[in-house]
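Q&A log
Question type: sequence-to-structure
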Amino acid sequence: MTRWTGTLLLALVTGALLTGCAPDASEPTPTPSFSSDEDAFAAAEATYRAYVDALNEARADDAASPAPIDFLSGEALETELETARQLDDLGLTVRGDTRIAAVTPVERTGNDTVTIEVCLDSADTMIYDTNGDDVTPPTRETRLRLTVDVTRIGDTLAIVRSDRTSEEPC
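Response status: OK
Response body:
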């Protein structure tokens, strides 16, 4: 694998891990007004954990429901769709489970947006080419620190943005 391909591969997988979630419109999850910051942060964390669960299930079974993209909205949805297209174009598949190592509350803006910091552990994920060969970059970072925005959209919560917080692993 060339250096460019390895770099692109690492960027694609990192991009896939940085996306967030919004519940499927066909299966809305009612979201009451938050009575406290603690309730808001707990709901944001639960939303992100539901997304990661759906992502892990989809890696094991393409027909899993809900699908990870059912949880996406805005920038996070656009990023996920582009990453999926690029992985497909390269004939690459990600297998294995991503885990949430830690979640830290950051900020609540009004009653609509909550920001959390997530430590995402992808040590158990691998990348495979069309021949089934493991092409996971050996130098990839397996723990990423992300800043995630969760926003109320109608009666549901949606992860609308997820960015790498720093180059330092968590």
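Response note: The chain is about 35% helix and 25% strand.
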